Amino acid sequence: MNIKEAKQQILNAIQAYLIKDEFGDYRISIEHQRPVFLLGAPGIGKTAIMEQIAQETGVNLVTYSMSHHTRESALGLPVIVHRNYTGADVQISEYTMSEIVATLYDTIEATGIKEGILFLDEINCVSESLAPAMLQFLQYKVFGLHQVPAGWVVVTAGNPPEFNKSVSEFDIVTLDRVKRVECQPDFGVWKEYAYYAGVHPAIISYLELHPDHYYMVDASDKNNYRFVTARGWEDLSEMMQLYEESGILVDHALAAQYVQNPEFSKGFAEYYDRFNYYREKYDVDAILEGGITAQNIADARAAGTEEAVALMNLLMDGITYTMRSCIQMEKMIRLIHPRMEDILVKINNGLSCRQIISEHIMDCNKSLDKAVRARNISPSNKKIQHWILHNLEAYLDKCTNEGRDNKNRCTVILQNSFNNLLHGANNVTQQSMNGLKYAFDFLENAYGADSNVMKKFIEELKINCHTTNFIKKYGSEQFYRLAGEPVQQPTYNNLYDLNLTDCLLEQE
């Protein structure tokens, strides 16, 4: 199965393991909750899907690489304790709490979340001295004398032996104690994730042209490994974006640090130079603002396959950026709105505006810190929380310096600030809708409504979570017409009906 299917299998298991009966006990006892054993080639996203599952379920995530653990760090250290048995004082040895188990309790205390996922990577690379203890752990969730807390699901992962010389293959006894989930690299599935994660469009378009360059591991020559992984492409993308923002040259030397196959890294570096030429040639930003020229259309019609694929991904990247920002802004406004209502009500009841906003800032910081510690917050939601904090801090400064903590002045400042947020969100929404319209207009004029290029563009819109969410929420008659699908009613609701007046009217 691919990594997306593997994720769903693990998510299903976790949800089932956390079902409780009418007495609050887990329906499947901890001894019968088989740990998941996720087996797959290196760098295909095993750790990434565990982070996504924690974000989707809201539970804690604690990860350990078992190849780095000794018997002592995993089981705890032996200590001598005194006991009295049948009237006789004796000394016996016990083990201190495992570092791993202790971390779970520390995480529960820090986050206030009792349930979680313990993800043990490279489980089939444990040291020989630790192997017997791991068999006991896989069945009873016990390290030494200390059991994993109830509500914590164990997921393990490992690489097949052909990828790692330290791998010890599990015997039947061990395999009979786990839920084995095996996954393989799949470019189509990774591309869906690439859109979600904002992978550089040059990488997406290059791999569409060369899908066989997406993943390759050659471990036949131990002195000269050659490999290309999904993790390598994503890490290269992040570095490329930072280089571009900083004006640093993206070249073959950079690509070779992440794409560790000379042929592939050289091929991508050369393609990246041509991609930049296409980017300048078409000025996609202008096209998405309605600046479609006859020359643009003529160039697109004359373009070869490589140029057409690059153009398609440039258009997708442009509309994805604004649509993702639109959805994030809407979510931020919906989250900050009740906080601003609370601030207004309290200052109009005579409390200090500075004090109330400060309390909300502290509460936001506390919630964010807990989510980061639990590792169940996505990068997008983390960004939204930072936006909220930034706005609250700006309101605090403005109410202090301009409002001077006066009830009436602070009320006006907060109402105007919230209206500015709504206005900004409305502008981004309109920009996104216009960008999609102009992209369709451009492609229809250049290639035709029934062309393969248009069909490919619609296919990409459907697998891109940001464009899919936006179209579902705000609608697009062109999309449904060109896709040959019945028009769906937008799910967009009352964002622009929100205000900070109703809460004050309710108090009168």
From TrEMBL:
Domain of life of the native organism: Bacteria
Segments forming domain ATPase dynein-related AAA: 35-172
Gene3D superfamilies: P-loop containing nucleotide triphosphate hydrolases
A single MF term (Gene Ontology): ATP binding
Family matches, as InterPro entries: ATPase_dyneun-rel_AAA (IPR011704), P-loop_NTPase (IPR027417)
Protein name, as recorded: MoxR family ATPase
Organism whose genome encodes this protein: Ruminococcus bicirculans
